[in-house]
Amino acid sequence: MSLTRPARAAGADPVTIGAIEILSGPNAKYGVSIKQGFDLGVAQANRAGGVQGRPLAIAYEDSAGSKEQAINAARQLLGRAKVLLLLGPTLSTEMFAVAPIAVERKAPIIGTSTTANGITAIGPYVFRTSLPEADVIPVTLRTARDKFGVKKVAVLYGRDDAFTKSAYDVMAKALADLNIEVLTTETFGSKDTDFSAQLTKIKSLEPDAIVVSALADAGAGILLGKQALGFPASVRVIGGNGLNSPKVLEIAGAASDGLLVGSPWFVGKSDPLNEKFIADYRAAYGADPDQFAAQAFDTAQIVASALNAAKDLSGDSIREALLKTKVDGVMGEFSFTPDRDPAVTSGVLVLEAAQGKFGILK
Q1: For 208-238, what is each residue's pLDDT tens digit?
Q2: DSSP 3-state assignment of 212?
Q3: Architecture of the domain spanning 2-131+269-335
Q4: Which one, of 82, 85, 77, lies nearest residue 322 by Cα?
Q5: CATH of domain 133-263
Q6: What pTM was estimated for this model as a whole?
Q7: What DSSP element (H or E) covers 335?
């Protein structure tokens, strides 16, 4: 367990919350970004006075993307370390394993990157600040249909991950609702690195686009495989939340040109809060933040606000305070719905990849 020390000690013991993120292994690109967002958010909260006169601190555990390791981390943080609430874990697959432990202990748990269907239905102490795929994917697909005339697609998704499977379910429903024809649906396993068989079949069917639900490494591999097979440039990849990462563009390079993803946040959004967050992030980490860092940063502000408003620091009081919390953040005006999902008013942006960067689709 690692503990991020508060920016100001304030002469009092810190109020410690826990976070379970993927900090090592293939999907650490998500967890490290989230941790950096949390740390910036905690530093800001402590500059503003901390929590009930005490500094806020986060005790981190690395899940390494393993459900079993995430479960052990939750037991360590909630049992031995006795943290007040949990942030994370990173992936929806992990959340389905970990959240029941928090619910049993009546400890609030907040996912910042868990977008699968059914997350908050796990129990009354489960929250999330990430916009569900069900709110994002239909906007992306509708835009692709209306702007680029996408009428027939192939679908490719990871079959053995809760996040990628859930996103596929959303994609299938949205495609049906939009009257977009599905020529074929192909799958792959979480350890697969060669997608040539699926892509060769897809190419023969001449789709207008390929709709992909994958995590970053697989998504980049699919983009590279598509390029290697010589697909026409007009055949775009339309991705879910897992492809909305600069790491995908970094790995795939020019093969990512034309990739479309939906997002509730973008680094180019111009407002004072966002511009300050980006400047602080660049100063601290020497790189631009992604949406995972932005969501984590806002979540730290949401947690600090709720802890300050709570009648006491019991799980029930924190839960009630979270339900009433309203924050102006870099994602927009934030509050929770009664079902503990985000009620963000800023809407969904459709982003297009070109020359190694995402930009807002014009």
Answers
A1: 999 999 999 999 999 999 999 999 999 999 9
A2: strand
A3: 3-Layer(aba) Sandwich (3.40)
A4: 85
A5: 3.40.50.2300
A6: 0.88
A7: strand 332-335
